[in-house]
Amino acid sequence: MTIYLEHWNLKPLEIPQRSRLFSLEPVAVGTPYTESLSSYLHRLAQAHCLTSQKLVMGEIAPLILIFEDKSELLSKNLSHLLGNSDAKPTINGMREMTAKLVTVLEELTMRQDLRFLTLLSWKGMIYDKGLFRNYRAWCPCCWEEWKQENKTIYEPLSWSFKDVEFCLIHKQRLIEECPHCGSRLPVMARFSPAGFCSRCYGWLGQEIKGEEEIEKYRVNIQGIGELIAITPKIGYEPIPIELTRKLQLILLVFEQAIGKDLRFLGDLQGIMEQLRIAAKQHQNKPYHLVKLIIPVCEKAKISMSQLFLANFKELSEILFENFGLNLHL
Ligand SMILES: [Zn+2]
Ligand SMILES: [Zn+2]
Q1: Alpha-carbon distance 31 to 69, whole Å?
Q2: Ligand 1 centroid to 148 CA: how many Å?
Q3: Alpha carbons 327 and 323: distance in angstroms, whole number
Q4: Phi-psi sector, 124: left (phi>0), alpha (psi -120 to 50), beta
Q5: Least enclosed by CB within 10 Å: which of 14, 27, 158, 257?
């Protein structure tokens, strides 16, 4: 017995906690090409050899509807459960259902980075109405290329935005209709394998020769990409009042720049008027991303990360330098 105890450790093994679902890693978090939550959900279902409908109804819905009558579940389908009607297609945005879905998925996969696949972190800062498309959109060249290179096929969050009309890499307009069956495809479908049509299951990747003129769309697309990329850095508690203060600072800098050199007037007048209206109307309510925040950054010659991540003092210094000012606030 003594010999036995010397050679065998009888203490029970410490087994780390296991996740109920695979802890599948989302693609490209922290970059402009971050995967969307809907894409992640579909890939997670595929990893378990399940349809998205089965995964949601079997594992996710019971946790989301914990206080509701379970028998009601049977009468619902995926679209109804996730509020995926034409009027509310924005599961990748900042809606209440998005937050519930993220919480449950993070619990089931034991991951902490799934909220960055949505715009949840920007709630209160960015106005989400009209920001997202009603249907899926994709760059066929990206998918064809990833397939050829054996890369993960997924949908970047940026493709959910209405103002991302082109792929900056391939200079192609994003496609919204299946070339095989002509259908427009819902963001959440019963079975939606990455890169395929959820109606006819045709492959949606395609090599296209030639490039389109995209320069006038570039600012918005890059701005949205940058916003997505910095999402993990802004943390979980955005403070809308800080953004309001920074926008007021930018307005002040614009006024000083014009005071110093009238040539700035023509370029800045329009955006200054918008900033004044926004400051008056919005107070601490969310701001319009494409109509206000992105053009303000462009005119102020700052990046989205400078606007959101620099503190007030750092931002002041950047702005003063950009406009050759020597200010004391
Ligand atoms: Zn592309
Ligand atoms: Zn199709």
Answers
A1: 40
A2: 13
A3: 11
A4: left
A5: 14
Tokens of 217: 């769309």
Residue 204 pLDDT > 60: yes
What pTM did the predictor assign?
0.90
Task: Residue 102: name the closest of 87, 121, 88 by CA.
Answer: 121
Question: Given a cut of 70, is residue 285 above it in pLDDT?
Answer: yes
pLDDT tens per residue across span 57-113: 889 888 887 766 666 665 666 666 665 554 455 789 988 889 999 999 999 999 999
Ligand nearest to the CA of 204: 2
In one-letter notation, the amino acid at residue 176 is E
Which token pair is 51? Answer: 């349809």
Distance 145 CA to ligand 1 centre (A): 8
Q: How far is the CA of 221 from the centre of ligand 1 (A)?
A: 13
Tell me how far the alpha carbon of residue 90 is from its chain's centroid.
11
